[in-house]
Amino acid sequence: MKKKLVATLACTTAALLMAGPALAKTGDVIPNSYICVFNKKAVNRGAVQSEANRAANAAGGQVGHVYKYTIHGFSTHMSAQAVTQMKARNPSISYCEPDRVIELSPIQATKGKPGSGGGGSTGQTTPWGVTRVKGGVSGVGKRAWIIDTGIDATHPDLTVNTSLGNGFVTREAGLTDDLNGHGTHVAGTIGAKDNSIGVIGVAAGATVIPVRVLDRRGSGSYAGVIAGVDWVGQNGQAGDVANMSLGGPVDSALDSAVLAASSVVKFAIAAGNSGDDASNYSPAHAGADPAATNIYVVSAFQQTDTWVYFSNYGSIVDYSEPGVNIESTWKGDGYNTISGTSMATPHLAGLLLLGAVNAPKDVIGDPDGNPDPIGEH
């Protein structure tokens, strides 16, 4: 039975998209950048682009992303006054909200700083987390959408489908290659090949699809993340799983987009690394909706099957997975060992690809007093 309430973030915080301070933090407003959502009954999918152009142009603004397959809406660059006037003239617009920064939160490490990646591998190892969840099962032919920093397309330990992928980072639209490493790490935990080199994933050999919404610093915008979710909503199929190891303050448009896309694709979403109630963050907050039967919020535990201090928690959390000292693939054909609920989440994403998730026991010490079940195959 899925627990419902409110959720957390995972491994994300923020950077600017168009303008604003150089050292913006997750949740900071991006000046003169907005996300506007139409009333679906007023503007159907086929009319979203033209209505967005008409509304923004009349207000002296520019259309950025257009959302058709989850929410119906668009992002735009214009002044606050222009947005107010635009909305007043267009009753078909349900609401407009400021766009905000979103980025990877600091990676939690228990044994010093994580390595920089790179380098090759001599023989295959099975990461402890994959063993713990009884993974390493063939996932060949199954598909996982990685909404993150991109994926290293040439990594010899991954099956990457770039033709289905897309990028939604400002000034780098369409690019899917991982310049950070985080997205490649997530992809490897889900589907690293069983091929005698490197590591093996939970659903070994599964196809991983890059949906790049964060830049080389691990930062982006809510508008870009929603565009990535909309891409999955357009192209995802039943049986697919999407992984979102990112998050920020609660956001209505992002939650609505994830909820809509989850009607077809299962979503594994990180709870967050703030040692806080997960209910304060999106997109995990989307799991609070009673209709969110395909959204799974994931906390982290360590090798002793005990709670790890940095993990977010709360009634909205569905499963806890291995999240400390997780070895996986990295950019530059490399491998890296890092920690966080970002690392726990792809363990569950791999399990979801393989079918039903078993929950044999609870993590000890969950701060909310309601221990999270450990998921395994």
Automatic annotation (TrEMBL):
Keywords linked to the UniProt accession: Hydrolase, Protease, Serine protease, Signal
Residues the record marks as active site: D148, H182, S342
Signal peptide: 1-24
Biased composition (Low complexity): 123-133
PROSITE patterns hit by this protein: SUBTILASE, SUBTILASE_ASP, SUBTILASE_HIS
Domain Inhibitor I9: 49-104
Pfam families linked: Inhibitor_I9, Peptidase_S8
All residue ranges annotated as the Peptidase S8/S53 domain in the record: 146-353
Location of region: Disordered: 109-133
Domain of life: Bacteria
Keyword match Flavoprotein: no
InterPro entries, per database record: Peptidase_S8/S53_dom, Peptidase_S8/S53_dom_sf, Peptidase_S8_Asp-AS, Peptidase_S8_His-AS, Peptidase_S8_subtilisin-like, Peptidase_S8_subtilisin-rel, S8pro/Inhibitor_I9, S8pro/Inhibitor_I9_sf
PANTHER family: CEREVISIN-RELATED, PEPTIDASE S8
Family the entry assigns: Belongs to the peptidase S8 family.
Entry protein name: S8 family serine peptidase
Organism: Novosphingobium album
